[in-house]
Design goal:
Number of strands: 4
Strand order of the largest sheet: 1-2-4-3
Largest sheet: 4 strands, mixed
Order of helices and strands: EHHEEEH
Strand content: 25-35%
Distance between the termini: 25 Å
Number of helices: 3
Shape: globular
Oligomer: single chain
Structural class: alpha+beta
Helix content: 25-40%
Radius of gyration: 13 Å
């Protein structure tokens, strides 16, 4: 995972999220680009295969970081099975 600028993070959000599955610009404005996160850092792990098609966003208030990474459908299902 690498640190990126907020604008690079937003570009990845649009490119990989495709503005679908609830990840539209309204979500960006309401959840990611907020006053509470003005001093946050942004981290990105781009998908390495076509199977990694599910975008995950994590807000870490203790580290003041927002992270974006991608998992496969199977990985996503296993995350929520436990």
């Amino acid at each position: 995972m690498r640190e990126v600028s907020k604008s690079e993070f937003k570009e990845a959000y649009v490119k990989f999220g495709g503005l679908k599955d609830g990840y539209d610009m309204a979500y960006w404005d309401q959840v990611i680009d907020t006053e509470k996160k003005l001093d946050f850092r942004y981290f990105l792990k781009e998908p390495i295969s076509k199977e990694e098609c599910r975008m995950m966003l994590v807000d870490d208030y203790s580290s003041k970081e927002v992270r974006m990474f991608f998992v496969s459908v199977d990985q996503e299902e296993r995350m929520f099975d436990n």
